[in-house]
Every structure is written in structure tokens, then in C-alpha cells.
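Hello,

Our lab assistant flagged a job as stuck in the queue for most of the afternoon. It eventually completed. Since we weren't sure the result was trustworthy after the delay, we are filing this so someone can double-check. Below is the sequence as submitted and the structure that was eventually returned. Let us know if re-running is recommended.
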Amino acid sequence: MKSLSIEQNTTSLARRSLLKTGFWGGILLASASLGAGLSGCATTPAGSAQTPSPGEAHHYRFLSEDDLILLAAITPVVISQQPATNAPHTDKLLADIDTAIYHFSPANQQEVRKLFDLLNFAPTRALLGGVWSSWENASATDINAFLNDWKDSSLPLLNKAYSALVKIVSVSWYIQPENWQKSGYAGPPQAAMKALPQFS
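-- returned structure --
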């Protein structure tokens, strides 16, 4: 009977802890979004801010100017953690990330927007990410420490945010044909490409 009571108390404490984490996580994300808006953080898509390669324009439909600065700082560090990779062609990768997020569902786009606002808003970037300088001035060491802190955090919210950030960058990297072999994928069979030329 005593052990049943202890189990119930433990379950109750775990549930309460989870609810508190969810509550404070929600408050934090809402504060970051509100703070970003009030502080003038740009969330308007950047338009034709950069080009993925000379002579090829990309019209940004999701990423803002602030997002581009954030991702330009983070992507080389994320990609350097992948096996057998060189420094990415950042402009092209940013264009691919923008295209990928633009095709997310509206609900997923909202979650990504909250994450980027949290990282672009200086107080939450410093308190939650440990990056006290602007993203332009953050060192690779600082960014690597921030990513590892979120990956190993005891807060599930930060683990999920880390996972989302790394997946967005990594998938956009590996979807580029020139990077297929680095993931062990040799590309689609030539017979299939000949039969379906519209996909080449």
C-alpha cells in the first residue's frame, strides 16, 4: 500500500513537472515572439536579398533578414558536424532552407517562426542559447557550445528546438545532388532518370 502511494506521488510530481515545463516554455516562446515584434526584429521575408550562385536570383518567401544572419552563422557549424563534409556554399543552402520551410504546413511554419524569433531576440538568445554577442560576431566555438547545450538539455523543449534546427539545415544540405554521396546515396538509378526525364 505504501509503495502504491509513493508511485502515485512520483507520477503526480512527474506530471506536475511536465506541465510546468510546458507552461513556462509556452510563456517563453510567446515572450520571445512579442519581444521580437516590439523590438523591431524583422520577420518580413527578405525577398531577393541574396543569390544562391552568380546570375541566379532567389526570392526569399519565408526567411527574414535576421533569419539569414542567424542561419549564415549556424549552418557552417551544423554542416561541419556531418561526416566527410566541407564548408557549405552558404547562399545556396540558405535558398534551399527557405524553399523547404516555405513548403511546410502553416502550423509547422509558425513553430519555425517562433524558434527563429527566440534565437533572433537578444535577451532570449543570451539567456537560453548562451550566445551573448550578435550572430554575426558569434564564434564557431560559441555556436557549437549553444547547439550542444540544447541537444543535452534537461528541458524537452530545447531538445526539440535543437532537433528541428539541425534537421532543417541537414536535410537542406543533403537534398543537394552534389552532397548525395556524402550520405551514402549514389543518386537515383539512371534507368529511372531516363524513363522520367522530368525529374532530372
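-- support follow-up --
The delay was a queue issue, not a problem with the job. The result is valid. The chain is about 65% helix and 5% strand. The radius of gyration is 20 Å.
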